[in-house]
Amino acid sequence: MPTLQHNASADNLVISKHRLSGSDVSFTPSSNTSGPFKDSFPDTIVIHFTAGSSLSSSVNVMTNPNNKVSAHLAVGRQGEIVQMLPFNKIGWHAGKSSWQGRTSLNQYSLGIELDNAGELTPNGEGFYTSWFGGVYESSDVFKGTHRNQTAPRYWHRYTEAQIMRTFSLCQLLCRQYGITCIVGHEEIAPDRKVDPGPAFP
């Protein structure tokens, strides 16, 4: 199991003028924003999975103005990072949400999306399928019970590179912006969301 000993300096990750730079970091701008955060925000990070077929397809969705969805960062299976919004702009990733007395978490939080197919279904032949038709071997599958469910189900595994890069990002963002809270989408919208799910440590 990965630990939090990995850090942003090891990845040469740096934030300047609300833009991330470092190895395997790119910027694909999204116009899907409500404008700048109010003073003292963001103070929260929300972790998501994309439930998509690839990093590029998910970035395309979140940068298309017709889709009314966006996040600040997406992390690929090899640990590559795409930034879509500067960290001083509000994204559209949390939707209807509440946490510790606050609602509409978009206005307080940064969104990090992880390229991951989400919940999978066994096909009876030793493989597992996603909602979009992707097929996965058992080595890519995690069996676990979701915090908001009562029985174990099957989930797409995150890669170690992806998890470690996400830890690095969170550490850097916490230092840079004084982030005090990191939550999963499943925690702030438990009636409708299951990401990042039990495969995320």
From TrEMBL:
<keyword id="KW-0378">Hydrolase</keyword>
<dbReference type="InterPro" id="IPR036505">
    <property type="entry name" value="Amidase/PGRP_sf"/>
</dbReference>
<dbReference type="InterPro" id="IPR002502">
    <property type="entry name" value="Amidase_domain"/>
</dbReference>
<dbReference type="GO" id="GO:0008745">
    <property type="term" value="F:N-acetylmuramoyl-L-alanine amidase activity"/>
</dbReference>
<dbReference type="Pfam" id="PF01510">
    <property type="entry name" value="Amidase_2"/>
</dbReference>
<dbReference type="GO" id="GO:0009253">
    <property type="term" value="P:peptidoglycan catabolic process"/>
</dbReference>
<protein>
    <recommendedName>
        <fullName>N-acetylmuramoyl-L-alanine amidase</fullName>
        <ecNumber>3.5.1.28</ecNumber>
    </recommendedName>
</protein>
<dbReference type="GO" id="GO:0009254">
    <property type="term" value="P:peptidoglycan turnover"/>
</dbReference>
<keyword id="KW-0961">Cell wall biogenesis/degradation</keyword>
<feature type="domain" description="N-acetylmuramoyl-L-alanine amidase">
    <location>
        <begin position="32"/>
        <end position="197"/>
    </location>
</feature>
<dbReference type="GO" id="GO:0071555">
    <property type="term" value="P:cell wall organization"/>
</dbReference>
<dbReference type="InterPro" id="IPR051206">
    <property type="entry name" value="NAMLAA_amidase_2"/>
</dbReference>
